[in-house]
Write a structure and sequence with these properties.
seven-stranded mixed sheet; binds 4'-deoxy-4'-aminopyridoxal-5'-phosphate; 10 helices; Aspartate Aminotransferase, domain 2; alpha/beta; about 35% helix; Aspartate Aminotransferase, domain 1
């Protein structure tokens, strides 16, 4: 068996230990004589896994008792719609901070729902430049640049923009914005959930698609303040109401049981690998190696992102014209995959999520130094 060094942006590398555990348990889960996929989601064997995953999240993130931990489906994209569906009504407004393409998508769905309900969705701050359909984003705003309306129902931010490589909270000078008193802060943490500690109490609602840092696609983790969940609209379909899932411990309908099982395996690995402090140390070392290779060959590699906003998770950079395809194909020959930038922006993107080994980031950095020397 030979496994590659996987720098994909998502679905992304999973910890080997989590996959090996799944292989061990695949045919006969816990002595039940069947896989976890073949069991009722109402049975005690599955329920134990489900509850363990929730408890591990509570422990790793220090989730306070007044927040629910939910497992939902529909991807982070469904949250773009579910959030305004639950919290907007006639005359209300929601504010969005834009630092890249995913925040734009969240705003777009917010505007659709706002039109349905006679509400409004506004831009509280944007660092996008250019007039085209595809805006360029190279930084997170400074705290003073974000002015949320004091009447907003929520302030939405994207803590890490996966395509543009722009992150809040990696550098103390670019903290995640704070919402005005009484306004829930809502955060898309899909691509930087569980990479370092954060204070859950500061957030009304956090959501993250699993397929980057916590498991396979098909599961979305939501942390939501209980009073906010209770305040959601009751005249929308039950399946889209947060309270439905909170009241049923995320077992209202059939959950993605195998996905949640794998999330459990990944969380157990995070716990054993030193929890969030362990993840942060690993991730900072990886990012330092790859940004170090960029900065060591400044006339060859160009990272467009402002230093304080550089993402620890998704490192984007460009090469001189004509060399990016060769970079990707030579990297592949050296066992490194998933390096092509998103189709909307091009360039190269190295995603260094929790499961990516420090040795893999170091191997990429060495490859980059050698490639710049040979082609510069
Ligand atoms: N938000 C962010 C920050 C993302 O990176 C992604 C996926 N790459 C999404 C939302 C959309 O997630 P999904 O495909 O699970 O709907």
């Amino acid at each position: 068996m030979s496994r590659v060094m996987n720098f994909s942006a998502g679905p992304a590398a999973l910890p080997l230990a989590a996959l090996e555990r799944a292989r061990e348990e695949l045919l006969d889960f816990g002595g039940t004589g069947m896989s976890v996929m073949e069991q009722s989601h109402r049975g005690k064997d599955y329920e134990r896994v489900h509850d363990e995953a929730i408890l591990l999240l509570r422990k790793l993130l220090d989730v306070p008792a007044d927040h629910d931990v939910l497992f939902l489906q529909g991807g982070a994209s469904q949250q773009f719609a579910m959030i305004p569906l639950n919290f907007l009504d006639a005359g209300a407004r929601a504010d969005y901070v834009l630092t890249g393409a995913w925040g734009e998508k969240a705003l777009g769905e917010g505007q659709v729902v706002a039109r349905m309900f006679g509400a409004e969705a506004h831009v509280a701050a944007s660092t996008g430049t250019g007039d085209g359909k595809e805006k360029s984003y190279t930084r997170a705003p400074r705290p003073a640049e974000v002015t949320a309306d004091a009447r907003a129902r929520y302030l939405h931010v994207t803590s890490n923009e996966t395509i543009h490589g722009v992150q809040f909270g990696a550098d103390p000078a670019r903290p995640v914005p704070t919402a005005p008193a009484g306004i829930p802060l809502v955060c898309d943490m899909s691509s930087d959930f569980l990479w370092q500690r954060f204070d859950v109490r500061q957030y009304g609602l956090v959501y993250a698609g699993a397929q980057k840092n916590i498991g396979p696609s098909g599961v979305v983790v939501v942390l939501a303040r209980k009073d906010l969940v209770a305040s959601g609209r009751k005249d929308i379909p039950k399946i889209f109401q947060y309270r439905t899932h909170a009241d049923a411990n995320s077992l209202y309908n059939t959950p993605p049981t195998f996905g949640i099982y794998l999330v459990r395996n990944v969380l157990a690995w995070v716990d054993a690998a030193g929890g969030l402090d362990g993840m942060r140390a690993r991730n900072l070392a990886k990012a330092a190696a790859v940004y170090g290779a960029i900065d060591a060959a400044k006339s060859f590699y160009d990272c467009p992102v402002e230093r304080e906003s550089r993402s620890v998770m998704n490192i984007v950079f460009r090469l001189p014209p004509g060399l990016e395809d060769r970079f990707v194909s030579e990297a592949k020959k050296a066992g490194m995959v998933g390096l092509k930038g998103h189709r909307s922006v091009g360039g190269i993107r190295a995603s260094l999520y929790n499961a990516v080994e420090v040795a893999h980031a170091e191997a990429l950095a060495s490859f980059m130094k050698e490639f710049a020397r040979a082609n510069g």
